Amino acid sequence: MASQVVPHEHEVTTLKHHFANDEQQKDASTIGMWVFLVTEIMFFGGLFLAYFAYRQAYPAAFASASNKTNLWLGAANTTVLICSSLTMAMAVHSASVGKRKLLVAFLVLTLMLGGIFLGVKAYEYHDKWVHHEVPGYHFDCEGCDDAGHAPLFFSLYFGMTGLHATHMLVGFVILVILIFQSAKGKYTAKWYTPIEMFGLYWHFVDIVWIFLFPLLYLIDRSKTGLK
Amino acid sequence: MNIEPRSFQLFPDSASNFAGTVDGLYLYMVLISAFFSLLVAFLIIFFAVKYRKRPGAPVPPPINDHSIGAMILEIAWSVIPLGLSLVMFAWGASIMFTESRPPKDALNIYVTGKRWMWKIQHLEGAREINELHVPVNRDVRLTMTSEDVIHDFYVPAFRTKADVLPGRYTTEWFRPTKIGDYHIFCAEYCGTKHSGMIGWVHVMSQEDYNKWLSAGSGEGSMAEEGESLFRQLGCGECHVRDGHGRAPSLRGAYGMIVDLADGSHVRFDEAYIRESILYPQAKIVAGYDRIMPTFHGLISDEGMLKLIEYIKSMGDPNGMTLERSGPNEPANLQKTGPQMSPESEIKAPTTAPRASAGTGKQQ
Amino acid sequence: MITAPPPVHVKKNYLNEKTGLKSWLLTSDHKRIAILYLIVVTGFFALGGIFAGLIRLELATPAGDLFESNQYNKIFTMHGIIMVFFFLIPSIPAILGNFLIPMMIGAKDLAFPRINLLSWYIYMLGGVFTLYVLFTGGVDTGWTFYTPFSSSYSNGYVVAAGLGIFINGFSAILTGLNFIVTIHRMRAPGLTWFRLPLFVWAHYATSAIQILGTPVIAVTLFLLVLERGLHIGFFDPAYGGDPVLFQHLFWFYSHPAVYIMILPSMGVISEVISTFSSKKPFGYTFIAFSSVAIAVFGFLVWGHHLFVAGQSIYAGLVFSVLSYVVAIPSAIKVFNWAATMYKGQIRMETPMLYAIGFIGLFTVGGLTGVVLASLGMDVHLTDTYFVIAHFHYVMVGGALLGYLSGLHFWWPKMFGKMYSDVWSKVSAVLVFAGFNLTFGPQFLLGYMGMPRRYHVYPPEFQVFNVLSSAGASVLGLGLLLPAVYLTWSLKYGEDAPPNPWGATGLEWQTQSPPISENFEVTPVVTHEAYDYSTVQEVVHIG
User: Fold this and answer.
1) Fewer CB in 10 Å around end: N or C, chain B?
2) Measured between alpha carbons, how far is C469 from C481 in angstroms, rounded to an integer?
3) B340 and B248, same structural domain?
């Protein structure tokens, strides 16, 4: 049941001193990461609540403002992110069977796909700025119904995708570190917990986007404004 | 008006229809709380003394807390408090239910809170600052809004309060039962002079109240001033009375359920009127185009209330008044001065962003 | 001939094993991290207490003669922020929880020792922001930050204060995460869930609330900061937003937060009452599940802070009835504690004095909460001194007294020293008496109609205000004394035996203070919890 790692004099052990055995350590890491992801759900949850509250209060404003998002870019980004989850899953699998080169390759692919996502997002943000769709002093939405309430949609758009992008950036940094460590052979089939834990995190970030995309890009497309 | 400072009181004045039942509920809760507090205190002290450790005595055997007796105890001291609590809940809920449904024929008075004063407007035109004159034994409904932050209109003697919100109307009602003067307190922290945002309610006999009203402030009634605004802002150009204009007729609309363009409904009340003036695209009436411009920045909160009163006074399509919410006298008061356009109600439109109060705002 | 006295043999323990500032600031030992928290949390408590003293000083007279209104408003705001976020929420979990949970479950440390240290540094960073606010001019929004006042009107340092609390929140989240994983996975062999000390159950429930609730206040303050800086329009009607939405988001966390403050305290009380009665807590299972029930129902009652805020009456009905439901588990605990004392062997040591004080004061505080849960009653009493009295009864009479009880109970274990019996009992009595004199009159003030957060007040309220301020000086004295005699005991106190109180629990089976690894050999648990038959005759009798 429990695999006891008994360190020999020169052997490097991955078992930390306060754990009784490897299994306990692995379980602790896994439960810890899931608990952390629960806190992230609650963190995004506040924004989702605000979104639903305001959408219900000002449907006309939300319908017309959300039509200003670029459907194709959003869809492309969704595809990119889902693919990056696939490459991340492949990376975890490669680690589990000890294939170092594949692990590094898949991690790099994940990084690249994540980079594409962030690049597209940056372009979208710039586009919004140019069209005066950023709430604040220069806000002036052309063709937005109920323009008095339109800034609420855009605030939520930037708030939610911005928070998501921040999480991706953090993931980016960690990914770079993992790539370097993997290249040096730190992860073996016997112990690759950080890869697995990061995989959980990356999938979570992906899932958040899968909720954001329909809410911000897809709904009310059939109505091009109220009659 | 100078009011004598009060001397020490142990209990607040009871001056409204709610005071009796609220005090009754409080007494019930105080008795129960005292009973349980004293019971717990007594048990603890009694046990501490009776079962104090005597030197040399052996460790007592553990008590079986899974016995039938123990289970009954656990259930009893869960269920009994729950039962007593539900009485508190039901009684309190019934009080608040009544508080949330002002009687239809209540005397309507408008309250606007602003840092740091209360502006009160009677329908007949009388205005006051930090004072509220009301007749005794009449239902009074306050319709309230704030010009800036959240305030709260609290009259301890009446046992009622309600938050006063910017951008929204909230209501509070009571029936004063005792002639006298009672504190008004702002009960939602609003900044520097929060504790200075206080005043007095003057409850008077109906006769005295009528006399006070007709002394008046020299202006017309709110509805009359509202009509003047309606003309000045050009509302009547689209909102034609006979309904053949570009916008719906407002005659008799107050209180009705309106069909909206997106299929939903809304009640034509103060909130809808306000929203339509400030955010006209939000809830368009079915069958009409989205052409109404916004009047955001062009009308003050006070002006808004006058417009609302005017629209309410427009009556039903047959020309009869739907609602009378004035005191026991004719709706039209003697006008004592020429009809002047109330300049203060119309503001120049600003394109500058809204500035915060105070200078040197730090981040 | 003069012979040299025999060398004093000081046992090797976690305090003396490694020395030097670096060994403390880079420690991963949960016990040292607990001590680090003890130092800074005490500092913040003192600061919050000074503000409380200034408030009571000003309120002794009806006029605003000590401070200007703006200054007074900043003082009560800082008092609230410091006490809530920098004292009440961390105190027991970060100090006693950190120190004891691994020991109580027979582990060598928490699951993530370095994250534990990170939690402390995050707390310090949040504290730095808050001190920055304090020294550069303060914030005057009240600790509740209601909009649009805080987003568009306040002249204080709202952004810095919001960021300080935002950062501090992550300290709580990481501590909660650490506790949950540790309790799940690192219990010693034989230590099943229902053999756990009730202190551990209490912290498990607390950690669940921290995990689920704190992120919501984080995102709420984050939105507030954005609103203040960029006027994006979430909460200010001038920009299309809804100020009541802020209140919902704020209280969704801040109500469960009060259970974060009280549950650990209740955990302490369970341990102390049991020990000083030499009896297993009556209704152990009920107390354990009550903690869980409080955590669950605590998330469903936030709307009782919005009864007069413009919320629909139907929502009010739901929140009101649920607020009664959430009170029941606490009542169950109080009755079970009393039943624990029945036919026990009571010793009135200092921790027990505080625990008994807790039961009395928490009962009053809880019952007055039940008064406020009634809709019609709350309409009159909300935003008055009745509410202030209520929450100080549960927070000070409850949470603080539980903290003091725990501190006095485990002090010998943590530092290996006994403190003065006489002075500690005198302090406990002063605290109890001073506290009641301070906050008892405030119930009467509230019913009279004196609103809260008032700098000046009508003269008819003065009598009770003076009584309250007088009580505050007694309370202040009572709270100052432990700082003196506890510190004194570190150098001059009698050495503590492993189990001075005759308690059960794994932490009492080690030396005082413990060695760094806590146990020489991982214990194996074979008895049920609170088995007093195995405890030797108590050596230390007060």
Assistant:
1) N
2) 19
3) yes
pLDDT digits (tens, 9 = 90+) for C437-469: 999 999 999 999 999 999 999 999 999 999 999
Give me the CATH code for the A22-217 domain, please. Answer: 1.20.120.80
Same-domain check for residues B167 and B42:
yes
Structural domain including B186 reads 11-47+102-219
Dig out the tokens for B148 from the structure. Answer: 């800036």
Q: What number is the average pLDDT over the span A100-122?
A: 96
- Cα distance from C326 to chain A (closest Cα, Å)? 22
Q: Which token pair is C34?
A: 């607990």
Tally the domains of chain B: 2
Mean pLDDT for the stretch of residues B320-324: 40
Find tokens 């079986």 and name the residue: B64
Best CA proximity match to C287, nearest among B36, B80, B77 = B77
Q: Does this model's pTM top 0.80? A: yes
Residues B248 and B296 in one domain: yes
ipTM of the complex: 0.92
Residue B225 lies in a domain: no
A58 touches chain B (CB under 8 A): yes
Strand partners, C417: C495
Query: If you search the block for the tokens 């709706």, which residue do you land on?
Result: B331
Question: Which residues 61-80 in chain B show a CB within 8 A of chain C?
Answer: 62-63, 65, 70, 73-74, 77-78
Euclidean distance between CA atoms B317 and C202, whole angstroms = 67
β-bridge partners, B173:
B141
Q: How far apart are CA B41 and CA C356, in angstroms?
A: 9
The answer to whether the bond into C513 is cis (omega within 30° of 0) is yes
Helices (H) and strands (E) in chain C, counts: 16, 0
Do the Cβ atoms of B190 and C149 come closer than 8 Å?
yes
> Element (H or E) spanning C216, and its range?
helix C198-230
Query: Count of alpha carbons within 13 Å of B314, Cβ hemisphere only?
Result: 22
What's the N-to-C CA distance of chain C in angstroms?
40
Residue matched to tokens 């939690």:
C119
Q: Which two tokens stand for residue B104?
A: 């239809």
User: What is the separation of C-alpha B275 from the centre of its chain, rounded to a whole number of angstroms?
Assistant: 19
- Are B120 and B110 spatial neighbours (Cβ–Cβ below 8 Å)? yes
Q: Do A28 and C185 touch (CB under 8 A)?
A: yes
Contacting chains of C (3 CB pairs or more, <8 Å) are A, B
CA distance C281 to B63: 10
